[in-house]
Each structure stands twice: as structure tokens, then as C-alpha cells.
Structures
1.
Amino acid sequence: MIRIRTKIMIFVTVLVLLVNGVTFYLYHSSQQTIDQYHDSFERFIILNQISKQTTEVYESVNAYVIEKSPRYLDDYHRLRDQLVDEKEKLIGKVENKDNYPTVTNYYNMIESFLEECERTIEAFQKEDLNQYSFHLNEASKVSRFIQETTLSLLNSELTSYRAFYHAMEQKNLYLQAMGISLFVTTIFLSLLTALWFSRGITRPISLLSSSARKISKGDFSGEDVEVRTNDEMKLLAGTFNRMRRNIRELIKEIKDQSELDRLLKEMELKSLQSQINPHFLFNTLNTISRMAYLEGSEKTSDLISSVSALLRYNLGNLDKPTTLREEVRIVKEYFFIQQTRFGDRVTFNTDIDDTCLDIEIPILTLQPIVENAFIHGIESYESDAEIKLCVYEEKGQVMIEVHDNGVGMDEDVKERLLQKEDDGKPELRSQGHSTGIGMKNVVKRLELFYKNKSEIQIESAVNQGTMIRIAIPCTVEKRGDDQYVAYYGS
């Protein structure tokens, strides 16, 4: 996360670096221009000095020959040394790739000129008239060549200087345009950044304020406040969004718990429709069962025991969950009662994995499904009716399947059984049996119990039987007194 303070520091740093960078570039460019101008001007001075000193050296030699005065000889030596110094500057200051041949020749002519002057002095001091006159004449010729070459080099330098001056003017205009552009860019960038910062702060605050006003009015259904900046405002918006989602989930949980309580009350009312005292009924059935056993009617005793167990389970504490093992046990008791009633007309089969039977499950889940399979599926069959209960584990879920080879159902009935919301149509219910609990009640309680992590499927077609499959998590987590929520085991 990049803090707002960090963003401001980055912007100021970038702005300072930009301004200083451009300022340094302008300074460096102007310094280059000054250096180029200084070099050009220095070349003019060197060439002018060489031209002037060549003339002075020749005049001093000529004066010494005519006047024979040592003063002129001293002047000659002084001026010659100066000319030698200026000559050495040609290589580093004047010479370049364009005038290399000319400057080299110019350099050699100066050396020749100085050599002729030295020979003139030597011949004069030996009083060799012919030799010093010849060398003096040669020095004069070389001096004229030097003057002509100097003019040629000066003319070349002037030509280059005109191009340099034109380039300098263009560069000056470019630098002026850059300065103006920098000024405009700095102002524009500052305004743009200020707008960006203000929008990144004020817009999220405005959205949060609007959402907070809706929450204060009891409206928790708004969309999440979206903040694209990765700073404190994003953290604040994310915390606000999580708080609102948590409130929505809490409200939904309260509503679900209220719906579960209503369904449990409905089950209790169904279970108490007979308005018979449960203890009196259980005691009476147990007494009849013992009497039948003592009289030798063991099958009758077993039947009465099964009825007693079934009624005790149905009239028990419906607020607490039970285990799948207990649900299977009660279904087997129900199987025994119905098989005693219908004999060979119906067959009950089971295929149960015992390791899956210790998980939590809402009470009265399997029996209503088996009742519906019997009443709406196979009760009308005179023979070869079959119901099968299968329990097994698959992909981290416990699968419960109830099969029958009965009359089946059409798509409309399947949709009504699995519909989560009330569509206004009467629910299909069992008639004349122990629970009277509808299939939709079972479906709804499973969704609430497992927090929508359970799955219920119905595969059926008319006259082709029905298979109801329930997939539930392998484990459940206890959360508070007698309140359970499903989760998948690791």
C-alpha cells in the first residue's frame, strides 16, 4: 500500500528532479555554446597573432641587417619565441579534420620562415652578402605565403562561424521554447496532480458518506465502495465494505434461524396432532409389547417395539440435530413396519457405509423422504415394489440416495419439490403416516442447517421410478448452544 503522504513526497521529488534536470540541461547547453564561441574566437586570435608576429619577425631581421644594431637582434629573438609559441597552438586549437592539410602546410611554412630567418642572421654575422640576401628574400616569400594562408584560414573560420552563429540562434530559440514548455508543463502537471489527489481523496469519502447514510436508514443492500487508489482510502473502504457484508450476513443468519425455528415448530405441531401424552403412549405400547412377547407373539412384539421407537423418535426433541446413524435406524424401523404391513408386495434394501453414519444431520430428514417414496411411488403396486437406501462417501461428501421403482413424477412436481421460495402452490404432503412433513420442509431445513453447502437432486420420470440424492458435508462445526453449521473436512 502506498500512503498518501508517500504519493505527495514522490510527486514533489519528481517535480524537483524535473525542474532541476531541465535547468541543468539549459545550463550545460549554454555552457557548450560559450565554449564553442570561446574556441572560435581563440582561433581568430591565434591566426591574427601568427600573421602579425610573422611580419614583425621579418621586420626585425630586416632592420638588424640594415642597422646592424643588437637591439633589433634582441627584438628578433623575443618575437621569434612568441611566434614559436603561437605556432604550437595551431595543432591543438586550430587544426581539425576539415582544415588538416592546410594547417599542416601552414605549420610547415612557419617553420621554414623561422629557419630562413635564422640562416639570414647567421649569414649576415659571417658577412656573407649573397647568402643572407638570398635567405632574406626567401623569408620574405614565405612570409607572404603565410599571410595568404592566414587569410584563407580566417575566411574558412568565418564561414564556420556563420554556420555556428546560425546554429547558436536556432539553439537559443530551442532553449527558449523549452523554458516556456517547462513552465507550462510544470503548471499543468501540478494542476493535474492536485486534481488527481483531490479526486482520490474526496470521491471515496463522498461514496463512503453516501453508503453510511443508507446504512443509517436500514438499507444494507448497496454495492461495495470501490476505491482504485492503493492508499489509506482503499483500506478504509475495504474495512467499510467488510463491515457492511458482515452486517448483511448477520441479518441473513438471523432470518435463516427464524425460518429454521418456524420449520421446527411446524414439525412439532405435526408431531403433536394426535394430542396424546407421549409418556402414556410409550408406556402403553411397551406394556402391550411385553404382553405379546410373554404370550409367544414375538413378531407382534417386534412390530410394537418398532412403532414405539418410531413414535418416540418423532415426538422427541426436534430442536437438536441427530446423527445419520440414528436416522438410518429409524428408517429401518419404518421399513420393518411397512414390510410387516404389506408383506411380499414391497422389498426394502440397504447399501450403507458404516463409516459415514456419525455425522450430524437435522432430525427427521430421511424418514419423510422414504415415506414420500412409499406413498407417492410404490403404495399402489400390488407386487415387485422396491425401495433402496444407499449411504456412501464421494469426493469429501456423504451421499444419501433413496431409490424406488414406483410411478415416478413429472418435471413440474420435481421443480415444486426443489423450489426454495414459496410459489403459492400447495405443498405435496404425506397423508395418514407418522410425520406428515413435506419434502420442501426437508429441503429448506437442510439448506439452513448446512448453510447452502448441501445439494439435493431428484432423478425421475413418469412410470420409471425416482431417485433422490442428498450430498452433505462430511463434518459439521458446532457454533453456540445447539446451533450447528456445516463445513467440509480437510
2.
Amino acid sequence: MAEADLLAARREKLLRLRDQGVNPYPYSYARTHTVAEVRAAFGSLGPHQRTGTRVRLAGRLVALRRMGRAAFGNVLDRSGRIQIYASTDVLGSELYERFVDLDLGDIVGVAGEPFTTKTGELTVDVGEFTLLAKSLRPLPEKWHGLKDVETRYRQRALDFIANDAARRAVEVRALVLRSCRSYLDAQGFLEVETPILQPIYGGASARPFVTHHNVLGRDLYLRVAPELYLKRLLVGGLEKVYEIGRNFRNEGISSMHNPEFTALEAYEAFGDYERAMELAEGIVEACALAVAGTTRLTYQERELDVTPPWRRASLLDLVAEGSGCDVEKPLPELVAEIEHRGLPLPPPLRNGPKGKVIEHLLETCVQDSLWNPTFVLDFPLDISPLAKRKRGRDDLVERFELYVTGREVANAFSELNDPDDQRERFAMQEALRAGGDSEAQPLDEDFLRDLELGMPPAAGIGFGLDRLIMVFADMPSIREVLAFPPLR
């Protein structure tokens, strides 16, 4: 049937039900079990065994096969699906005909005794049923499901009905967030909330979204990161804090990037980036155990071992090895060597800063090879305005990026707490902004004032949780782990 005919037929059924005095959208249903609970309680039955127990389930009807005076179907709830069996012997002819007149997609409540068929499949013998919500639109074709990516993202509710993997990704997200909180709470961290609407954006190199507050009569920015506010809490004596929340960056959309994303940032007084590495290992290990029960995983059909401790490697050494370039050379000589080797280099980077050239070489020549977790250590100072200088190397800072499956999932520093040094770094960023760098960070006088009160030395780390969730959900694109990804 054409879709218009299917919609019309379902509308006719809706009218017929109402004419018969049936409410197609009742208020509630008192179920006693989920599908998973039925399977846990009665899954060990042998063929042709019955339980003698009556259960009440509720879920979406996703299959229905009439076989004369009996019918088999499948009901799906949040915990899984289970077979149901209806017959005229139990329901009687009138109720049975009403049952087989249900449509795929209808949400139903069924009550009956679990038993096993001759093939050993756990099944609920329907003694009564209730229509809980009439579905007026058809589900995807049975054998093909919902495969078109654009359709899946534009009709996300339908995608969750049709695709087990889509629902599983949402469940994995919840497990990861819960595990992060549990781990940090157990470590004595305090979960806090900081402003999303900010008068000055900062804490990351990114273009912000701008909005306007009518009463205040001023522009505000959706935060690109909570870092500067979390550091103010360290100044105020809250020594171990973290926040899980949304950040917003006015950038492109790809399999790795989304302008609205979930981040975890954690700060611990009196630590440095060595402590941040310990936190990173602990958080990821806790997530792996919660989701998979092991630290030896499979991602996209390739083995992945997240068992601590993890590899540590110098950024400069990795880039020199991966590109073949001498990254210790001055910028003009480094650019000339890159071009001589035929490596790609966007024209704007030829004028520096040198740190961005090195970062570009990391992204193009190295990161794809960083499969198992790797701490990439010690970044150039000119692209790290919020990190302490590396001990013994003033052109670098104590910063690492964590790479897993060839993508960055975390960024961390020994946090800069010298207000004079921080002012100089902000001045460097202002010069970049004046030169046309739209991602450079603005000077924040309020933050500098608070820093002058004295901030203890600290370890800080930020996780891009969507990317981490991709790993544990075994998804190749960030859009697959967002319940409702943005669309054009």
C-alpha cells in the first residue's frame, strides 16, 4: 500500500475504536515486569514448560504473524523484545479479532503466563491486552529497517524504534556519564555548575556563539569551556571540582565535531599534569568496566586495550618521526622543509604561530597511528595560553592531549596560576586576534583579578565525552551518540 493509504487505514481504525467506546490513548498501565525481568525470572525453562505465573508487560508491537486461530507477535520495551502468543482458545473470537487488527507500532499492554514453545523460545501467552497508544504511522519495512542515514537523523524517534544500536548508544552514554561521576565522587571531587551564558568567553581556542540579553542590554556568549570559572572555585578554596555539561563552539560539523557537545572538566589543587594523567586513566578504566566489564575492547572490528598505564610520548618527538621534519627549526625553515617534503600546509599557517604548524603536523602525520591510549606530552607555549611552562623548557608547557583510536579525547595542563604570566599570555592572544585569528582567547580582567588573590598549583583536565562515548558504543561518527544531531 502507498503511505497515504496506510495512514488513511490507520486513521479509520482509530475512528472505529472510538466508535466502539475504546480509548486508544489511556492514562496508564500497571505493568509488573519489563522484558528483561521476565527473561531473568523464566529464561531457564525447558521446551513446553509453563510458569504458572501471570505477568503484565507493556511495549511496542513490532511483529505480528496470524496463523488462523492463533497469532505470534513481538513486543519491544526499553529492555528488549519478547515473543507473545494469542489464540481464540484464550481470548475468544471477538477479542482475538481485535488483537490481530492491531498495527505494527501500536503500544500495548499484555497480561498472561510465560511459557516456552517447542523450540524453547520464551513466550507470553496473552490472556488479556490493552491498547495503550495507537500508532498512526507505519514502521520501516520489516526486513530492511531504517538504513538511510539522513532519514535516521531526521526521524530520530523512528530510528530508536527500528535500530537496536541507536538505542544502545543512548544507554552507553548514560553509563559513561554515571561512571565519570562515580569515579570523581569517590576521589573526593565536588560536582559544580558554572554559567553557560558568559559575558566573556574563554578557556579554549574557539569561535563562540553570540546571543543578546534584552534586560541587561548586552551581548553574551554561549560558553566554549567552563575552565576560567572552575579555576575561580579553586581560588575560593574548593580544592577538587568537576563539571559535566554542554559547551558550544561555532565551528563545522563532521564525524568528529559538533557545535554543541558534552564535556567533563575536572580540577584538583596541588597537582600537576602527572596527576591529570592518573585521573584520565582512572576515568577511562572505570567507564570501560561499566560498559563492557573489561578494559580489552573491540572498536570498529579492531582490538583496543585501555588497560593502564598508558604510553607517554613527546609531541615534538612524535611529529619529528611522523613527518620527517626537524621541528626544532625556526618557523621559516620548518615551513620550507614541510613544503620541500610535499606535506600539506594551509597557507595561513605559513606565518605561524609555530605551535599551530606543529599541531597541524600532529593531526596530519601522527594522530591516526595513535590507536591504544597515548598521552602526547609538552605542547608549544604559543598555542597553550592557560598552561604552566615546562620545567627546563620555556618554549613548551606542561600540557598533554590524550589520543584513543586516532582521535583526541582529552586535553590537560599543569594549570597556570601566575597572574603576571597569565596576563602576558592573554596579551599574546589579543595580538593574534588583532591579526585575524577568530579563535584566539580574549583578555579577561575579572579572571585575572581573581587569580591575583592566589590560586594553588593545580591539575586540570577536560574530556570530550561524546568522542569517548563513541569508543565505548563502537560508533564511527559523533552523530551516532547524540540523541538528536543537528541537521541542515
3.
Amino acid sequence: MPDDSVSAIVSLREFRTINPDIPVRDVCLDSAHDNYATYGLCQKWDIRPFIDLNSNRGRPDSIPDSISIDEDGTPLCMAGFRMVNWGYCKQKHSRKWRCPLACGKVGSCPCKEKCPPSPYGRCVYTKPDWDIRLYTPVPRGTVEYKEIYNNRTSCERVNNRVLNDYHLHDMGIHTRKRYSFFTMIICVCIHLDARLKKRTKLKS
């Protein structure tokens, strides 16, 4: 079997080819797909990637040394607090981040006197082209990112049913057509299981 980071992209390409009228807006993947080739392809196809970060990767050299960032690319203020995403600024082609104290995300700050006196608080801008892996269209850590990425758990449950409950890998299948056929039959069975479970609940 091919590596997950390859098979997922091949599957996505096939889906787009077979279903040209169905637009793909988002794709949710695990850390096996945390590579620049995947992000670059998503960018080319105008797809928003939601991918777990691989903890073994370090800080990209393209990010200015004047900005401190968390492991997911979120800027940190002088006190080490994560700054607050304030949307995309079209004029600067950058994402704006505001002081967490000014936004009410922290109760107090030891560096308050060192920051600008404006009640709006200090702002930092990050550019997507600094690093397409860290600065995705929907920033990591935001509510929108978490809500969309959480949908991936439903796929994991289906995969578990296919591979473990219906033992697809134990069938000794070696051809792509047979894999596709038995996967389709298993998916039909999973849907029937769900309908039976729902009907049983309604009767009880």
C-alpha cells in the first residue's frame, strides 16, 4: 500500500476528476500529510488545508526573527501569550494579530508598561507567503479551524469500521478493482447498520 501522504492526494485528484461539478473547499488530513508539496497542491487547487502539524519540524527560516511564534505559527506577545487573530488585511496582504490583553483574553500582563499606550494594543502582521505550511487560509487555533477539523473524526470512525469491524485488510485482496468493490459493499453495510440503529432507537 502507498504512503498515506501519497494515497490521499491521489484519491483527491480522482474525486475531482470524477466529480468536476462538486467543488472541494476544505480538506482535513493528519500529520502524515504535513509537507510542503501537499500545501502547495491545495494552494494551486484553491482548497483550504486543515492538517495536523508534525512536531518534528522546526521554525521556518522565512519568518522574521523579530516575531516570536508558537508551534503553530501564532505570534506571541512580549509576555509569551498567544496573540488574537483579527482577520485578514487585504491592503497589506497579511493576517492581523492583536494584543491578548486589549482583546480581553488575559486578565493581566507583566509587560503592560512596555507595550504601546493605545487601548487598541500592539498589533503584529503575518504574511501567508512566509510559510504556506504554518499560515494556512484559516489560522490554526481559531474557532473556525477547530470546528472544521473536528469533522475529520467522522471519517476516522468510518475508516475504523471499514478496516477493523469489516476487516477489509484481512480479505487478502491484491487488486484495486476488488478493493473498490468490497469497500463499496462495506459502505453500504455501514449505512444499513446506521439506519437499523436509528429505527431501533425510534421503536424503543
4.
Amino acid sequence: MAEKNKITVPDELKSTVAVTDIQEVFDGNLIEKAYNWGRRNSVWPMFFGLACCAIEMISTAASRFDLSRFGMEVMRPSPRQSDLLIISGTVTKKMLPAIVRLYNQMPEPKYVIAMGACASGGGPFKEGYNVIAGIDKYLPVDVYVPGCPPTPQALLFGLMKLQEKIDNQKISETSWYDKENAGDPIPIPVLGPDIMDPKDFDKIRKQAKG
């Protein structure tokens, strides 16, 4: 399509309307754009609230904030049907093994949002004996939503940032389509007198023998 005849799509319609030409189809960009467009508008979060942030997450899903605009209104109770894990609240050491196990059960591609100060870094309970100082010590976090607790508007902004990340992903570069580089399940932490990360077991054994 000649540059002078190129159609300009208004900003408010760019998320739902795509204008292309035959050359873009041949280049392969259209397929990738259509694939990412479908994924960004059908993200199913897992309904998993931990503390006061969960109340704001539930409010976001109510009619006032209209989460269905993003194709995310179907909150699932099962990790097998979800591709977004919203960690909304305080992560305790007793809850951590269950969270990692649920994350491993989610199919690829999957994403994690750390909602609130507690999930992002421990919040006011950071020095607590039973609190994890940030879920990113055990799970890969894609978006951090600050606040204590964040407002529904803040969570919506975090969801839009996740959509931007999905828009920029390339099928040829993603790990979930590469059998050789596909990530192994994250080792589930062991709850004992304190939380123990299986990645540190060799170091723990050496220290115990020494």
C-alpha cells in the first residue's frame, strides 16, 4: 500500500482494529500480530487472593471498572485453565510452596503480576519471621503493581503493561515453543524450621558436613 494511501487508525481503536497490506502478510508480521492480539485480549487470571490486596483485585473485576474490556473477566479457580497468576497480598513461608506448585501447573505461556508492596518486596512485614520479602525470589515476575494496597486503577494499568509485553513478544524467540530451551518446573521450596530453596540444597549439605 502506498504511503499516501495508508489508513490511519484512531488511537482508541488500535487495540481492536488492524489495517495491513499484502506485503506485511508475506513478511510474516501479520500472523505474529494476530497471534499476540488474540493472546493479549484473552488473558485468564487465576483467582488467588492472599490478603487485603485481594479485595482491590475483586473490586477491579466488578462492573464499575469493567475488566472485561481487556478480555480478562474470566477469572479461573484452576491453574490448568489460567495463564496469569496475580499474587495479591502477603506471601507467607507456609503459603509459598503452594504458590510455586500452582505456578508449575499453569500451561505456557504464563505470566505473573506482583500486586502490592507485600508481594513485591514484603511490604510492612518484610522483616517478619514468616513472610517472604518478595515473590520474585522464587517466581519470575512480569509486572509489579506498587501500592498498599494498590487501587483498581493501578491494577488495570499493570494489566495494560502486561498487554504491551505480550504485543512485543515474538514466537520465534519465546521459550515455550523451543523444546530444548523450555524451562523446567521451578523447584518447590521445602517448609521446615525455615523455608529452604531446593536450588540451595547442595550448599546446605556442604555446610552441614563441614
